[in-house]
């Protein structure tokens, strides 16, 4: 999916919501356990319930890999089921020496070589340019680089001062020499809303993937008012607060209500642009 297509979807749906498919087999409603693929049955119900309000879906690969080969099948079925107008993110947080990264890229981007067909993958920047560029060799596919993450440990390295800057700022500046805003996004945690204006100064056009609203307590309002651009420019993820809004038979209805509430708020911030 291109930058302009993603931007158009945001204004069409009046939403920059990304639903995180962090599907924990231990948290599935009991009535789904008799299904042949309970994880997929759950994801299908969540996608059906939220697709009116979401422009992106982000399966977190750990939840699938931890299930062994069955998990990989659930992931493939889920990816196939996501509506084609929605942007898909493999949240895998990969990155290694070049030849290994190219195999990771194939895993998520190349169905002709037994891989999946995601639009994007999350990548860790720690190993530098040659660990990231193999993911950029696929036309129409995106790298979403971890810049300033939502967790407390982000202070250990990402917020360390380096000269006049903090390390995450160097990551954002340097990565822009590897790819344009048409192929590169940055992860910025919603819990880091105080620095989103600073990030917009050094990355005015890049999409930011913003996890950390809902269960992690980040503020949608603060991130939106500082991070939205004329193209949209944000994908705000919520996983647990949508998926597990209810553990009973009404889980899909409750997920829909959570997603709709976020979309209604997002429409308001888009109207302020
Ligand atoms: O790359 C991510 O998506 C990510 C980066 C980050 O800084 N913080 C973060 O929470 N995430 C992911 O975003 C999702 C957040 O889930 P909830 O806290 O349940 O909404 C999880 O899949 C995390 O792995």
* Helix/sheet category: alpha/beta
**Average pLDDT for all residues:** 98
Largest sheet: number of strands, sense, barrel closure: 8 strands, parallel, barrel
The count of domains is 1
Please indicate the percent range of residues in DSSP E strands (runs of 2 or more): 15-25%
Provide the CATH superfamily.
Aldolase class I
Q: Gyration radius, to the nearest Å? A: 18 Å
Name the bound molecules.
Answer: orotidine-5'-monophosphate
Molecular shape: globular
Identify the notable features of this structure and list them briefly:
alpha/beta, binds orotidine-5'-monophosphate, 273 residues, two-stranded antiparallel ribbon, 11 helices, globular, eight-stranded parallel β-barrel, 17% strand, TIM Barrel
Give an account of the 3D structure.
One of its GO terms (molecular function) is orotidine-5'-phosphate decarboxylase activity. Pfam families: OMPdecase. This is Orotidine-5'-phosphate decarboxylase. Keywords: Decarboxylase, Lyase, Pyrimidine biosynthesis. Pathway: Pyrimidine metabolism; UMP biosynthesis via de novo pathway; UMP from orotate: step 2/2. There is one protein chain. With about 270 residues, the protein is α/β, with parallel strands linked by helices. The protein has a single domain (about 5-270), classed as Aldolase class I (TIM Barrel, Alpha-Beta Barrel). It is about 40% helix and about 15% strand. The chain contains eleven helices and ten strands. The strands form two sheets. An eight-stranded parallel beta barrel has the order 1-2-3-4-5-8-9-10, surrounded by five helices. A two-stranded antiparallel sheet has the order 6-7. The longest helix is centred in the last third of the chain and has 21 residues, at about 250-270. The radius of gyration is 18 Å and the shape is globular. Bound molecules: orotidine-5'-monophosphate. Orotidine-5'-monophosphate binds near residues 20, 60, 211, 214 and 241. Orotidine-5'-monophosphate binds near residues 60 and 216.
């Amino acid at each position: 999916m291109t930058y302009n297509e993603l931007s158009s979807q945001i204004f069409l749906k009046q939403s920059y919501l990304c639903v995180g498919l962090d599907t924990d087999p231990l948290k599935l409603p009991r009535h789904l356990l008799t299904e042949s693929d309970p994880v997929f049955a759950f994801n299908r119900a969540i996608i059906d319930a939220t697709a009116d309000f979401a422009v992106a879906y982000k399966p977190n690969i750990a939840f699938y890999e931890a299930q062994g080969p069955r998990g990989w099948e659930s992931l493939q079925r889920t990816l196939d089921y996501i509506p084609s107008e929605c942007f898909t993110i493999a949240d895998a947080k990969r990155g290694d020496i070049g030849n290994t990264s190219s195999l990771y890229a194939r895993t998520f981007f190349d169905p002709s070589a037994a891989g999946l067909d995601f639009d994007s993958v999350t990548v860790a920047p720690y190993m530098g340019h040659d660990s990231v560029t193999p993911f950029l060799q696929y036309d129409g596919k995106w790298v979403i680089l971890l810049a300033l993450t939502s967790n407390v440990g982000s202070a250990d390295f990402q917020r360390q001062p380096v000269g006049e800057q903090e390390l995450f700022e160097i990551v954002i500046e340097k990565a822009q020499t590897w790819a344009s805003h048409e192929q590169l996004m940055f992860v910025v945690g919603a819990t880091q809303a105080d620095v989103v204006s600073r990030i917009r100064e050094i990355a005015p056009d890049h999409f930011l993937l913003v996890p950390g609203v809902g269960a992690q307590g980040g503020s949608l309002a603060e991130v939106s008012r500082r991070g939205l651009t004329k193209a949209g420019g944000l994908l705000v993820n919520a996983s647990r607060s949508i998926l597990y809004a209810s553990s009973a038979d009404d889980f899909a209805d409750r997920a829909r209500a959570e997603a709709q509430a976020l979309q209604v708020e997002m429409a308001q911030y888009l109207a302020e642009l």
